[in-house]
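In the design runs reported in the main text, the only information available to the sequence generator was the tokenized backbone. The following block is the verbatim input for one such run; it is reproduced so that readers can re-run the procedure and compare outputs position by position.
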């Protein structure tokens, strides 16, 4: 379990533990270019688990000296593995094995974050930062199909996975559908399960949109990252079977630790059309 994800934690880890070594060697009789060979060697160290997530790898000079290759070869190999998101460079600290991304699914069978993480065998945690009855701002009101100023329950939560902060969520629910929700403790709870068990509200379908943003200072502090690092911004509206919007939320996912998956289903009516 990761208990400290800040830059100081990585610095102390890298200084306390020696960098791992490369177990293979460059085959100088092979027609395969050296930088491709080096990529394969380093990729195998990661895939085999010999280099664990978060470990600092040997520096460029160390790799040059150990494997007797040029700085250009090393930089080409490291750049390619960083592009594959297997390595992460930290300015002033070195290059580290990247943490595996946490997968979130945008599927036709709509699930919430809590249920999604439990299904993957991970341990989700939810800290409620704010929970109150407020008047709906225009954007929220439009998403929920209600008049601006209508009472909504606003819930701000910080959600973590396996002890690491991953996503900031601001959710809004019409107060007339969820009377008293503002007083229910949602710490480490599934909102969708609470809606079903406490209010007999069952999510039927949803609409989700996402885009890329950069973290502000406040967002970065809460998520344990640096300001300006990439975030995945997700807007979601969920509906009851009768078409009423029951929840609208805006979520900021850490771009370095989150991968969103989308299941696609081909509409049979479109068969024969060129949709590629």
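Verbatim output:
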């Amino acid at each position: 379990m990761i208990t400290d994800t800040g830059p100081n934690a990585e610095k102390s880890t890298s200084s306390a533990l020696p960098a791992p070594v490369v177990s293979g060697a460059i085959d100088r009789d092979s027609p395969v270019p050296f930088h491709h060979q080096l990529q394969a060697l380093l990729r195998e160290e990661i895939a085999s688990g010999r280099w664990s997530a978060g470990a600092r790898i040997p520096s460029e000079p160390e790799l040059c000296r150990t494997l007797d290759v040029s700085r250009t070869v090393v930089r080409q190999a490291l750049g390619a593995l960083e592009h594959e998101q297997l390595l992460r460079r930290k300015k002033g600290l070195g290059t580290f094995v990247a943490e595996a991304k946490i997968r979130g699914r945008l599927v036709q069978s709509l699930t919430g974050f809590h249920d999604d993480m439990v299904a993957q065998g991970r341990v989700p945690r939810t800290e409620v930062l704010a929970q109150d009855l407020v008047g709906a701002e225009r954007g929220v009101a439009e998403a929920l199909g209600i008049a601006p100023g209508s009472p909504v329950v606003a819930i701000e939560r910080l959600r973590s996975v396996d002890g690491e902060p991953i996503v900031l969520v601001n959710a809004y629910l019409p107060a007339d559908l969820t009377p008293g929700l503002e007083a229910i403790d949602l710490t480490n709870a599934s909102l969708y399960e609470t809606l079903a068990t406490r209010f007999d509200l069952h999510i039927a379908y949803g609409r989700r949109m996402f885009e890329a943003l950069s973290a502000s200072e406040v967002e970065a502090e809460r998520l344990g990252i640096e300001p300006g690092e990439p975030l995945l911004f997700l807007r979601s509206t969920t509906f009851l079977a009768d078409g009423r919007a029951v929840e609208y939320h805006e979520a900021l996912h850490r771009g370095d630790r989150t991968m969103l998956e989308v299941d696609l289903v081909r509409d049979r009516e479109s068969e024969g059309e060129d949709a590629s």
